[in-house]
Amino acid sequence: MKIAFVVQRYGKEVMGGSELHCRQVAERLAERGYDCTVFTTTAKDYITWKNEYPEGESRLNLVKVKRFKVKKERDIQSFNEYSDWIFSHDHTREQEIRWQEQQGPLSPDLIEALKKEKHHFDVFIFFTYLYYNTYWGLKNVDTPKILVPTAHDEPPLHLDIMKEVFEQPDAFIFNTESEKRMLYANFDFSGKYQDIVGVGIDIPGSLDIKDFLRKYDIHRPFLLYAGRIEKGKGCQDLIDYFEKYSVGRPELELVLVGKLLMGLPEHKRLHYLGFVPAGDKNAAMQAAALTVHPSYLESLCMAALESMAAGTPILVQERTEPLKDHCVKSNGGLWYSGYEEFEAAVDLLRKDEKLRNRMSENGRSYVKKCYSWDIVIDKYRKAFEFLGFDSD
Predict the structure, then answer these.
(1) 146 near 289, Cβ under 8 Å?
(2) Can you say how many angstroms the Cα of residue 286 is from the centroid of all Cα atoms in its chain?
(3) pLDDT per residue over 148-200, tens digit each?
(4) Distance of CA 160 to the CA centre of its chain
(5) Can you tell me the distance from the alpha carbon of 68 to that of 105, in angstroms, rounded to the nearest whole number?
(6) Which range (162-176, 197-211, 302-316) has the least confidence?
(7) Diameter over CA atoms, the chain
(8) Best CA proximity match to 165, nearest among 141, 135, 140
(9) What is the pTM of this model?
(10) Which of 156, 229, 293, 330 is the residue whose CA sits 20 to 30 A from 310?
(11) 3-state secondary structure at position 288
């Protein structure tokens, strides 16, 4: 089978959730003999969509990558102002289309390439419902189409043009049951193939924790956050809570791993490590007292699953249903709403070793059962079979 993926950014330096998700699925399918090609842009940064990768065809691991220039960079301030207006005022379809173009990444060349090459592929898989390349790509491809929405219950989802997005695909691959429930309340999926799949997570072996601690001058115990460090991910709340919690608890540290997109306060027990190799990230997760996932908007959260795979309990924002579902289904974590619950949960997970050990075992078992790569790839094969292709 020849499979085309369509995603807004793609590359080993692109570590965003849906983009990394797409790359991992493409590479795992390619390892199993599928002919995989990715249609994407030359953008590396999702804020500006600035052209940084070279245009044209390349190869990353076993996957062919076709990159197309972004016609216009995004002015995030004017885009946010227009978004605030359109989400709070009556408006026309044309104004929603204008919003979609400002959202970007605006790459008409990518859409033209999809139109020209659509019959060279058996299946197209689009990642993320939100962007220009998905909206126009789905409209211009009549080959069998799968959408991996990676959707949150956020204002753009309720624009009228999003009904056009969800009408187009022949099949849907959801990340979680809660994402599926949320989308069912907004769109009609009658007659469409659907499955809850997510992404595969590898279970790390025993790692050299002492070497990690020494390398980064970290002292235990510590809380860990891994992901984009920005207010939109709840990181300001986390830092505020940590500063309040650490008063009178001088032994606790907070470690942040990922791309920094906000200012950080001066705090001697707050450590920002930047991007770290995968082995170091896994060691950080194994060494942490717990990992905290404060985002209000997630459709899956690979970092939470990676933490459970590493044997570390998770603490998540209660209002984020997919994260809370992970905790409920796995018995591998707790959730909080407000500082008092955050404080109580951290105290409990730090002090009750028996509970920690049980949650550690539960979380790892949950990931093995639900998010192994064999299970994920088998579910993609079933989707291909529904669309008329022999999985062999």
Answers:
(1) no
(2) 21
(3) 999 989 999 999 999 999 999 999 999 999 999 999 999 999 999 999 999 99
(4) 24
(5) 10
(6) 197-211
(7) 65
(8) 135
(9) 0.87
(10) 229
(11) coil
Tokens describing residue 286:
């194994």
Phi, psi at 354, each rounded to 5°: -65, -45
- Burial 69-82, CB ≥16 within 10 A → b, else e: bbbebbeeeeeeeb
Tell me phi and psi for residue 172, to 5 degrees: -130, 135
Amino acid at 364: R
The arithmetic mean of pLDDT across residues 103-125, rounded, is 97
- How far, CA to CA in Å, does 296 sit from each of 23, 221, 316, 323, 379? 24, 26, 9, 9, 28
CA dihedral of 152, 334, 254, 198, whole degrees rounded to 10: -40
Phi-psi category of residue 301: left, alpha or beta, with phi > 0 → left and psi -120 to 50 → alpha: left
List beta partners, residue 57.
66
At 342, list the tokens: 């955050």
Q: Which two tokens stand for residue 281?
A: 């990230």
Q: What are phi and psi of 164, to 5 degrees?
A: -65, -35
Tell me the three state secondary structure of residue 290.
strand
Report yes or no: 22 and 130 within 8 Å, Cβ to Cβ: no
Cα torsion angle, 290, 296, 298, 299, sign: positive
Where do we find the tokens 């197309």?
68
Side chain identity, residue 185:
A
Q: Does the bond joining 105 to the residue before it have cis omega, within 30 degrees of 0?
A: yes
Write the CA distances from 245 to 229, 238, 255, integer angstroms. Answer: 20, 10, 15
Distance in angstroms (rounded) separating the CA atoms of residues 308 and 291: 9
3-class DSSP assignment, residue 216? helix
CA 252 remoteness from chain centre: 28
At 278, the amino acid letter reads A
Which residue type occupies 385?
E
Omega within 30 of 0 (cis) for the link into 204: no
> Strand pairing partners for 222?
253
